[in-house]
Design a protein that fits this description.
Length: 807
């Protein structure tokens, strides 16, 4: 696939110089097709272009996903709290679809996903996404966001669209230093980055290197230490006698001369430390042949927090170790590696691109300030809880040729994928009896004095550990036709075969017609698919526990789709999701400097893969299983919506003003459920209201951004308002249904060129300190969560200063 090449700014809030505005019509877009002669307004499908260097100079946000969240209305990413690994990798969505229904490319090549499965009832529950934060902002030239189904061109995952990240290839040097802090004096952020590019001694050769380090401090967003509803009151609610449990804790507090202030509860954004090193290089041997390579390494260390365990929880707390109870901490070490090597050859208007792209993501878990209560006083307080790893290697051959008004392209792809779960320390997962022996199904529950495994995050056991792989082979062809920039037609087809579930054939047709100069109608229709990820097929973390009746040892947790328990309940082997995409839109340029695009879309997905609610069934008893969750092709969905983008540049008062308005409306509905015939459980247990809520109403249906950016002399001013529409959160089975009203977040910044090469920018994200509505009490875990991590999240106001250097 050719590299995508464009350098304009869409969705503004960024000044575009007069010279650059004149070049907009000449620059071209290739994402979504392999015709390199089209401008942005000539594409049959919508494409957003984000010039990262310019927007990052004035924007408060410092990571790729946060930047996109405030300039692409159909893109959403919210930080989660107390959500295990999901605290450390933010799930992101496009057009209301799942994180795994967005394909991410780097320099036009498929990027690997994370090894993490989201299963803590957050946005994207049951999905596996791509961690955009592993790519340093300072290494990126621009980002292209294709808002249309593109599986026929790029393969699996491209149901909602494609995000293509283009790395810098310029020579010279630049650097950036950033400091920020929330209005509550937490969440302190440091970020420093350096980019350096140089020639490799030959014309058009280059190597570009980027180094970035950052640290984000934790935040605390509990009920302002209101101690009457403090901390872990929900623990009392689950006790056999909540009143007696609370009284017991009060007695401990009085006896030790303590107060409830000594039991503050840490809930908020996790602490994240990260270091990244990326490169991008190309060397032409002659006018026809060149080699290229790019990739990088990222290491991320995170620290999040679980729910507090109180003194009265004698089954969970070893009183001799933690006489006052404890709050566990979940640490992560995430290693991400990627590289691509390729060769391009061009002769007689034929273009050949052969490449190999590798990626690996490893997520290690460490639990601290906790205990394995079944070991009593012998329990460690820190545990290595295991790891999971995902590896992907892709070989591509792409061939294209321009013939008069036609551009033909074809090629093939071979991809190998591997997923691994590594066991943790025995103490992190095992449950022991009073004699120090690991429990079995025949162990009497009376011989167990406490809960097994590391409290807050149960380690992976040998029964969970595995290594699985698969491969896929694909061939594709597409043809585009351009007639004097008035009529554009694209047709594409792709056949793909997977070693684990079979084959799929997909096609797409897209058309644009300019009926009056600068006024055009465009539309597309196509089919798509998403292969079940290896993570969804094989992730499991089942564990031994005492049955709810207290009469024996049972197994609970998440089970593999191919497990005996899943087969007994009648779950089919996972297969691909299939989709039908349709879009219709208009592009307008009524006058110089004014660009308008309006696009509606419809996406139908059949056999969408989700994780079920917690299922209990008599059928499971014969396998010693009391309850479990399973991945299944459980639902069909329909998503419809519209995108509007307006951008206008003009000269005002001796300066240049860019105004941009971008909005999105998206609605997703579940149209059908697929229950195993012999499951014998109600829908609320198979896929409950809370799970339906995550799919349909937990993300804003409406989101819009109005940005004004004014540049004059050495000054630059930004004012941007982002509207987050209402969301609904269902606290089933323990809470209620709550509607969160719409909110508007205001970003401001002032930039000044200290010298020709040095710029200082100060400003704020969420200047007016806007939060989601307070949670209703029954959804707040009895007062712990003051705010839900929805809409703009729970950071509040954030103030920053940034120095940018160019040499």
């Amino acid at each position: 696939m050719k590299k995508l090449s464009i350098s304009i700014v869409l969705l503004g809030a960024v000044f575009v110089s007069a010279q650059e505005k004149e070049q907009q019509i000449e620059d071209v877009v290739i994402v979504g097709n392999r015709n390199n002669k089209r401008t942005k307004l000539e594409t049959p499908v919508p494409v957003d272009i984000i010039n990262i260097e310019k927007i990052q100079k004035s924007a408060p946000q410092t990571t790729v996903q946060d930047l996109l969240n405030y300039v692409i209305p159909s893109f959403n990413a919210v930080r989660q709290s107390a959500a295990d690994g999901t605290e450390h990798i933010d799930p992101m969505t496009l057009r209301g679809m799942g994180p795994d229904q967005v394909l991410v490319l780097v320099n036009g090549k498929r990027r690997h996903t994370t090894s993490l499965v989201n299963y803590q009832n957050t946005v994207g529950n049951g999905s596996v996404g791509t961690d955009l934060s592993t790519i340093p902002v300072i290494a990126i030239d621009r980002i292209e966001v294709l808002r249309d189904g593109a599986a026929a061109q790029y393969g699996s995952d491209a149901i909602a669209g494609v995000i293509n990240i283009i790395l810098k290839k310029n020579t010279g040097a630049s650097a950036s230093l950033n400091y920020g802090i929330s209005g509550r004096n937490d969440g302190e952020t440091y970020q420093g980055g350096v980019n350096y590019g140089a020639s490799l001694g030959k014309d058009k050769s280059y190597i570009n290197l980027s180094l970035q380090v950052s640290q984000r401090g934790k935040t605390t967003r509990t009920q302002n230490h209101d101690l009457d509803i403090f901390g872990n009151n929900f623990a009392y609610a689950f006790a056999d006698d909540p009143v007696a449990a609370r009284a017991a804790d009060d007695a401990v507090i009085r006896e030790r001369g303590l107060s409830r202030n000594d039991f503050n509860f840490q809930i908020g954004d996790a602490q994240i430390k990260q270091g990244q090193l990326f490169f991008n290089a190309e060397y032409p041997f002659n006018d026809h042949f060149k080699l290229y390579s790019f990739g990088g390494f990222s290491i991320k260390e995170g620290q999040g927090f679980g729910f507090r365990r109180l003194p009265s929880e004698t089954f969970n707390v070893v009183s001799s170790i933690y006489p006052n109870g404890f709050q566990p901490s979940l640490g992560s070490k995430v290693y991400d590696i990627s590289y691509a090597v390729g060769a391009k050859y061009e002769v007689n208007d034929w273009f050949f691109d052969l490449s190999n792209t590798f990626g690996s993501n490893t997520f290690n878990y460490e639990v601290s300030n906790t205990n394995n209560a079944s070991l009593g006083a012998n329990s460690p307080t820190n545990f290595y809880a295991g790891a999971h790893n995902f590896l992907q290697n892709t070989i591509n051959l792409d061939v294209s040729k321009k013939i008069n008004q036609f551009n033909i392209a074809f090629g093939g792809e071979f991809r190998f994928e591997q997923y691994e779960i590594k066991k943790g320390d025995e103490n992190s997962y095992a449950q022991y009896d009073i004699f120090g022996n690991m429990v079995t199904g025949s162990t009497p529950s009376t011989d167990v004095i406490g809960a097994g495994g590391a409290q807050s995050f149960m380690g992976f056991s040998p029964a969970n550990a595995l290594k699985k792989s698969r491969n896929s082979t694909a061939v594709y062809a597409d043809v585009s036709y351009d007639l004097d920039k008035k009529l554009n037609i694209d047709a594409a087809a792709r056949f793909e075969n997977y070693s684990d579930f079979g084959s799929t054939l997909n096609g797409k047709l897209a058309v644009r017609y300019e009926f009056i100069k600068n006024y055009a109608i465009r539309g597309a229709v196509g089919t798509g698919f998403r292969a079940p990820s290896l993570q969804q097929q094989y992730f499991n973390n089942s564990y031994a526990d005492i049955s709810t009746t207290g009469d024996g040892i049972v197994t609970k947790g998440i089970f593999r789709n191919d497990s005996e328990a899943a087969k007994a309940l009648g779950f089919d082997k996972l297969k691909q999701e299939t989709s039908v995409n349709g879009s219709l839109g208009f592009t307008l340029k009524p006058t110089k400097g004014l660009l308008i695009t309006l696009d509606g879309y419809l996406i139908k997905v059949k056999d969408r893969i989700v994780i079920t609610s917690n299922i209990t069934s008599p059928v499971l008893a014969q396998y010693g299983v009391e309850s479990g969750r399973f991945f299944a092709n459980a639902i069909d969905t329909e998503t419809k919506g519209v995108d509007l983008v307006i951008s206008y540049d003009w000269k005002v008062g001796g300066g240049n003003l860019n105004a941009s308005l971008a909005g999105n409306y998206t609605e997703t509905k579940i149209t059908d459920f697929h229950f195993p015939q012999n499951l014998g459980t109600p829908q609320n247990e198979f896929f409950g209201p809370d799970q339906i809520n995550i799919i349909e109403t937990l993300s804003p249906k409406t989101k819009a951004t109005l940005g004004l950016n004014y540049s004059i002399s050495k000054f630059n001013f930004l004012v941007r308002n982002t509207y987050f529409g209402k969301v609904i959160r269902d606290g089933y089975p323990f809470g209620g249904v709550q509607e969160f009203s719409p909110k508007i977040v205001t970003d401001v910044s002032i930039g000044y060129d200290l010298t020709k090469n040095v710029n200082l920018t100060i400003g704020a994200n969420n200047l007016l300190d806007v939060f989601p509505d307070l949670q209703i009490y029954e959804n707040s875990y009895y007062g712990v969560f003051k705010y839900a991590p929805v809409q703009m999240g729970t950071l509040g106001s954030y103030f920053f200063g940034r120095l940018n250097f160019n040499f």
